[in-house]
Amino acid sequence: MRPDLSIEIAGIRMKNPVMVASGTFGYGDCMDEFYDVSVLGAVVVKSISLYPMEGNPQPRICEVPCGMINSIGLQNIGVERFLKEKMPRLKRFSVPIVVSIFGKTKNEYAEVAKRLNGVEGISALEVNISCPNIEKGGIHFGNDPITASELIEHIRKETRLPLFVKLPPVLGDVKGFIRILQESGIDAFTIMNTIPAMAVDIKRRKPLISTVTGGLSGPALKPIALRMVWEAFQVSRLPIIGVGGIMNASDALEFFVVGAAAIQVGTANFLNPMTPVEIIEGIRGYLIENKMGSIRELVGSLKI
Ligand code: RRO
Fold it and tell me: CA triplet 167, 14, 100: central angle to 5 degrees?
């Protein structure tokens, strides 16, 4: 018998627990050249702000031995153009669309949420309180659980859509953060964003990206993200979406075992766009081999 890969998060039914992470799939414009996007559990689009943003100057991406560093700086077309130019095509994918939202202020986040509320084809919002590459907003809301909760309560007033919150990686007290934030009206945690990092060109003695520091992603993140998901799982009554350095099915399986209800594939999309599809097949194979009827049996099954 084929195992059941389907899950439900915040009332959203997904065929399987494999999503693509924000910023690694754009607005889905060219990914359907590689595969039928409707095989995915869900798509998270690049963070959208109230007004268009140009992003940071080049160079804004560099490779490092264990992954890559980016400083895109929230480049996006703004909520109005997103709705007019991108949503009509995205909703035809017949896959849940999660829109990542960003603001420089509480009111900006809330305004973006308001404009996305009730739009056909949008299943949830992922509140990005963890972008490491901007001077205002983003990470400044993610450093402390009280500030983050106030932001969520503000956004909650403007939308009936389920809210995922994407956390930063550097939290002193993960359990304390989760305990407070889960009372704010959110529906799921996305753990985690990139880690502030840098790289240097020693010939020129210059940073490899224009903003000096950026966000590290890729394989280096996996052990850190796993530990965060595991700690969050101990105290969370909400589902956890695990993300960080997932390059193959085996990486993804580790996240389910430590408590993730779903996962997101990020940097791996740049290396091999087929990764999410291969991961779905790999998870299915593992469940068959281990005689498990459902992915849900695996979640939080770590033996200590
Ligand atoms: O655009 C970015 O520079 C960016 C964002 Br919004 C984010 O959430 N995480 C990241 O590594 N880069």
Answer: 35
| Helices 145-156, 106-116: inter-axial angle, 10-degree rounding | 40
Hey, which residues does 53 pair with through a beta bridge? 76
The finding on whether 74 has its CB within 6 A of some atom of ligand 1 is yes
With tokens 């753990």, the residue in question is 191
* Burial class of 129 by CB neighbour count within 10 A (0 to 12, 13 to 18, 19+): buried
Q: Indicate whether residue 193 lines ligand 1 (CB < 6 A).
A: yes
C-beta of 127 in contact with ligand 1 (< 6 A): no
Q: Is the dihedral of CA 135, 172, 153, 264 positive or negative?
A: positive
Nearest alpha-carbon partner for 254 in 267, 239, 244: 244
Taking only the tens place, the pLDDT of each residue in 120-170 is 999 999 999 998 887 776 777 888 999 999 999 999 999 999 999 999 997
- Provide the sign of the torsion angle of the four alpha carbons 37, 41, 47, 50, taken in this order: positive
Cα gap 185→83, rounded to integer Å: 25
Asked if residue 111 lies in contact with residue 50, where contact means CB atoms within 8 angstroms, the answer is yes
Q: Using alpha carbons, list the distances in angstroms from residue 140 to 14, 35, 39, 122.
A: 31, 37, 35, 26
Tell if the pTM clears 0.85, that is, is over it. yes
Ligand 1 center to residue 287 CA distance, Å? 34
CB–CB of 199/64 below 8 Å? yes
Please give the average per-residue pLDDT across 280-284, as a whole number.
98
CB 77 within 8 A of CB 131: no
Which stretches does DSSP call E strand in 130-284? Answer: 163-167, 188-191, 195-198, 200-201, 206-207, 213-217, 240-243, 262-265
Catalytic residues: 131
